[in-house]
From TrEMBL:
Phosphotyrosine, modified sites: Y318
UniProt-recorded name of the protein: DgyrCDS1738
UniProt: Ca(2+) 5 binding residues: A288, A336
The UniProt record lists the keyword Transmembrane helix: no
Domain Peptidase metallopeptidase: 55-222
Source taxonomy: Eukaryota, Metazoa, Spiralia, Lophotrochozoa, Annelida
A single MF term (Gene Ontology): zinc ion binding
Positions contributing to Ca(2+) 3 binding: D133, G134, S136, D156, E159
List of residues binding Zn(2+) 2: H177, H181, H187, M195
Residues that coordinate or bind Ca(2+) 1: E159
């Protein structure tokens, strides 16, 4: 028995040639195949570490709403049991991650449409191009975050769902797996994971595996983590441009990536953790700036600095002492930016600044010289097209 992403049955002709199974994960009892081999650059099969796999998108908030919608036809399990199982499956993921969930009563269409995660029990053709086929076939499917039907879990109402029994299909185990998909987890390559593409017989004391926990924490952090939505952060640590045209903003152990457009479109793969994606870069940075002459980005923390090309260090020789780069810098450097007009680099600390030309101090002054009202310090800065954008607490100036 297995969970499988691409059913062998044909895709219904919906008239939409772009419609594929890349936004939905389906649980099919009749399919039992999974390959653990991978092909390396030499075309040779190798066995890779079996671990969690992430979808390309995730939720951009940590607080989600959920509810369950019950079918017109009665299930072989009580409504009270279903409600308790949905709550328990949600708790499996919230207890080990930075996610929190608010339960709703989904008794009206407008409530359902505004709820993030909705578990429903459907029959046959139920309007999403993935019809059910009765008992012992396709049991359910779930839609990944960032897709048109994100957060929807559809279960086949014709199945024999049970709770604490070896008979029938254990609803808690199946729902926990499907909810993992709605949160951004694909099928794991770890045999023991809940997100593995296999239905396991009833398991007393069912719980997530270490692999499942690592996967969900990679996406949403540990319990109690609260930094996720960049719009709700007040006072960033650092910001910078990079050679590939992206803009990055940093806070604590997180970073956000934006397109270099005037409306600053946030990339859907962020926020991410600095530890995971910036090789050797520490958390809680002081500042950063991009130097277009070399294509390198400089990062500062305390008396040390690092030099990167995009998100990779240019050398293993870093970090180095900041005195190897600057003469009498203002420490700690709270913000930094390059001005393409006069080709200078400005560093700020509190309400003062030093402007460097070829990394030698040229001008010192007060940020009030820039006609900023009621600004006591600059947290971070970056270039947006032909402007320098200065960030201070929840405000920005350009």
């Amino acid at each position: 028995m297995s969970y499988h992403l691409e059913p062998t049955r044909s895709i219904p002709n919906t008239g939409n040639k772009q419609k594929r199974f890349n936004d939905v994960a389906e649980f099919n009892l009749r399919q039992c195949r999974l390959s653990y081999s991978d092909i390396n650059e030499n075309g040779i099969n190798r066995i890779r570490e079996k671990r969690y796999v992430l979808f390309k998108k995730k939720w951009t908030k940590l607080r989600l709403t959920y509810c369950a919608v019950y079918p017109v036809i009665p299930l072989k399990i009580s409504r009270a049991d279903v409600e308790n199982i949905v709550d328990e499956a949600i708790g499996m993921w919230s207890n080990v991650s930075g996610l929190t969930f608010d339960k709703r009563e989904c008794n009206r269409d407008n409530v359902i449409s505004s709820t993030d995660i909705v578990v429903s029990f459907e029959t046959k053709d139920h309007g999403d191009d993935y019809p059910f086929d009765g008992p012992s076939g396709v049991v359910g499917h779930a839609f990944f975050p960032g897709t048109k039907s994100q957060g929807r879990v559809h279960m086949d109402a014709a199945e024999n769902y049970t709770r604490n029994s070896k008979i029938g299909l254990n609803l808690l185990q199946i729902l926990t797996h499907e909810l993992g998909h709605t949160l951004g987890l694909r099928h794991s390559e770890n045999h023991g994971a809940v997100m593995a593409p296999y239905y396991k017989p009833y398991t007393p004391n069912f719980q997530l595996s270490t692999d499942d926990i690592k996967g969900i924490q990679h996406l949403y952090g540990l319990p109690g983590d609260s930094v996720l939505d960049a719009c709700n952060v007040e006072g960033f640590d650092a910001a910078c441009n990079t050679q590939n045209g992206s803009i990055y903003i940093f806070k604590g152990k997180y970073y956000w990536r934006f397109d270099e457009h005037i409306n600053l479109d946030m990339k859907t793969d962020t926020p991410g953790k600095i530890l995971d994606d910036w090789n050797g870069l520490p958390d809680n940075l002081d500042s950063a700036f991009y130097w277009p002459k070399t294509g390198h980005t400089f990062f500062f923390k305390d008396k040390l600095f690092w030099v990167y090309l995009n998100n990779q260090p240019i050398s293993k020789d870093y970090p180095k002492n900041i005195n190897n780069l600057l003469i009498d810098p203002p420490l700690p450097i709270e913000s930094a930016f390059y001005n393409h007009i006069d080709e200078t680099i400005t560093f700020t600390k509190a309400d003062s600044y030093k402007k460097f030309s070829k990394l030698y101090a040229q001008v010192e002054g007060n940020i009030n010289d820039w006609n900023l009202k009621n600004v006591s310090n600059i947290d971070a800065a970056f270039q947006l097209q032909n402007f320098i954008l200065l960030l201070s607490k929840a405000d920005y100036y350009g």
